[in-house]
Amino acid sequence: MLTSIDWTAFLPAAVLVSLVPGANQLLSLQHGARLGVRAALSGLIGRFAAFGIQVGLVAAGLAAIMLQSAAAFEILRWLGVGYLIWLGFKAFRDAGTSPQPHDAVRAGNVALHTPVRREFLTAMSNPKAYLLFAAFVPQFITGPRDWVSLCVVGVAYIGVEAMTAAGHVLLGNSIRGRLNDTRRRRQVDRATGVGYLGIAGSLALERRP
Question: What is the pLDDT of residues 94-119, one digit of tens each?
């Protein structure tokens, strides 16, 4: 089954797609800047759990059916818009309250389930994530698009995104080291909020393919 996938075309394309700015990428940056590396990397479990579910839906043929349904697509799209607006509102509300860089973030004083939940809900409510696994990933399968090949290439994409997501976390953490006063932290948090609202607006204008 592995030979039925065009890996030479898939791998660079997957890297480029995983680097395209989006809600989960912004979330990883925010978590890295606000919570530090450990909590932010733990949060990625939520994203990849959602991706795993989406790969399973694609392999079962359910994702394509859902995306072809105008009603299902609209419900999913507006759920994503609403959740991103909430993230943007929360970023503005909590602006400047992130821990200072010298305050060590430990597992005992950070609720790790919070970044996990946010990553999971952001990925699950994003119709573009379903399109990624239902339309983008399968095009690199050169043989029959059976469930095994779909799962293999889907998991391979998750592996690629895991590496780029870790890069976003480290980038966010490097910014965190420069947030030495409340004013700077507030500016970064507000900029993050604007980013979420901008992505929400883009998703609100999205049309079913």
Answer: 776 755 544 444 444 456 788 999 99
